[in-house]
Amino acid sequence: MQSEKIITFYTKYDRMSASVRERFYNYKSILKKKNYKIEVKPLINDKLFYSRIIKGKPNYFFFVIQIFKRIIDVIFQKKNVVVIQHELLPYFPSFLESYLFYRNIPFIIDIDDATFHQYDKSNNLLINLFLKKKFINIFTKSNLVFAGNLYLLKHAKKQGAKKSFIFPTVINVQRKNFIKKKQFTIVWIGSPSTTKYIDDLKIIIKKLSTNCDVNFRIIGSKNCLILPNNKIKFFEWNLKNEDRLIAECHLGIMPLRNSLWEYGKCGYKLLQYMKHGLPILASPVGVNKQILEHGKNGYFARNKSEWIKYILKLKKNYKLSKKLGRNGQNKILKDFSKNVYENEYYKKISEIKL
Question: 3-class SS at 153?
Fold first, then answer.
């Protein structure tokens, strides 16, 4: 057995991905304190991430190269503890996970999206034939599963995970003070793949921006059905500006649809808003119901009239808005700070025997 303790993180993306920053990099400091050497090996690096996710320009040639690099890296993987974000190769059979298993290399699956539903709920004939049971094989062979919410935890257990634990997506509570805009401004942050959720509110956004002096700030996607005007502004996402763009606003929103895919969401948008003292308004779906306490740190909106009702309520009542925002910050410190979970994270990893 090696004298040096090494953990290899096989992530899908790198630092530009919030999921990787908060679920992997956030725990590097505690693991280093415990004398682990950390290797982070993303499938898609930040350059390719920016091209594929932010700009919507997939570079298939370099993506194929990255796939081959990962295959080679896993083949020559030493007997370290391995932590895998979701799966080693999307839309491939789980041969690499099986390879680790048969070499007795312990691996942990970290899952914060219902990725398994891309396969077990797909209508594609080839996916049904070759990949429908992919995650049954992955969960069964894993040593541990770290699930971002209760839905993911239950599914992992149902699919054969021997040991599984909830580790919610956490957030670094360090923040700077930014001056809020004078005009009441609502913020939504997301990626092009989640634009459909803000599209669902397009009629409400148009009505409030036109008739009620409500401003909207949409970060991370210009590919939606909402036309920009002097009340609706779009901003390109980058890691340097996201804190400022959120903190300058007065209300954070997270609309969702009610389907199995949404049940796998871990509510990171809400955590970002709460970190900066914003009250939150969200659909009562999935993990949102654990993060948002109706009337305490925000409100649930079940239909269009409730979206309008609560937006105008918070616009008119600054003291209430401030109170809900403070409650949200306190909830972050209590339930969603990395300081709450880092020792338990280390403990679970340290119990794995090589």
Answer: helix
